[in-house]
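Fig. S4 source data, part A: sequence.
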Amino acid sequence: MTRFKDINILVDSLIKNQPKLVTYDLKRLRLVLQRLGSPQLILKNIIHVAGTNGKGSTIANLKALLIGHGYSVNTFTSPHLLEVRERININGQDIADDFLFDLLNHIINNSHDIPLSFFELITCAGFLAFKEYQADYTLIEVGLGGKKDATNIISSPIASLITPISLDHQEFLGDSISKISLEKSGIIKKQVPLFIGKQPKQALDVIKNTAAKLDCLVFEYGKDWSVTYSSDRPYVKLKDKIIELDSNTLAGTFQSENSALALATLYYLDLLKFEISKRCLANVKWPGRFQYLNHGPLVDIIKRENNKNKLIIDGAHNASGAGVIAEEISKNHWTNTCLILAIQKSKDVVSFMENFKGLVKSVFIIDSLEDNFQSHAEIVKQVGHAEFNIQKKQYASEAVGEIINKNKGEPVTIIITGSLYFIGKILEKHS
């Protein structure tokens, strides 16, 4: 049995058998971390990122900028797409299977009497890994919410970032933008600079009110920086500086805003050299987020009939995420667009699909995933059939094949979306 299999078996067991915690707080985690030597207290220059959408891509931009400026960088992100080790990246390399396996067993041995969720365990593993392999900067993404999230055990970041907030995980975070914003504002620390991405007014009011109580220096989108367009090229304006972004890297208007948040953060922290910033961002990659697939079995199918056919994957799983996809469809004037969709039962498929009215030609529901995904029948019952011509397929390849067969004479854009887990399954065959 290989080590790779060992780590996968261990992770599967931890996820399957994790305790059903009545409450999430930091007391249990703090006790375990004390037994492990409190590694989170040793990490240098932490930048903590919360929000609903754009956390991971903002970190990807921060990482590219810092590395391009000559710094070493460790990152902790979630969820993973293909392998759990993606969550812990040590100066540009995902953590080794053997190392992660040993860390998790060490943590389990020191927490046998204290129930921890899988995310709490992997957070501990990240802190221990970063303690052993110190970097100049540590970038940490919140898992869920903010205040009670395991990553919020850190006490002294150099900056807190909050990306756009929208409705998601209402069962844990609250049933309104204001309530969710209050939970996510829990990462704000006393007198630590706060950088606020583009927000709805309800979110912005809550975030700024929290920051005022904690005497934070606040920088916000639209006031301290902005994104503008000229001839469809995105530009970031920072005081008296303007940086042109490479529109061929991370696709989508929202990605330009994530890049701008990263640029603004490092600019106001006095870590940015403008002459190399554009080059740093030229090759930023964040898989599964409005990603054009250029090779693999599904691409072979779509290119067979027309080289102008496009295949895009995006892990959007809430109404806000669907909204940015819809914005891209409209902006690019894609008049022949089809969706391939898999969405979990806990998600609001009605609000999700509302964004695509008048924009998509047909929708194919993938019915072969786990029981926690909504079936074709469930989605039709909620959304209606006539509005979107909703059809059922077992596999994405079947849906792609049918779309191409019905659109032989016209270029078609196919977007696969609804779940990061689903996108991960697609990428397994296209990486």
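Fig. S4 source data, part B ends here. The chain is about 40% helix and 15% strand.
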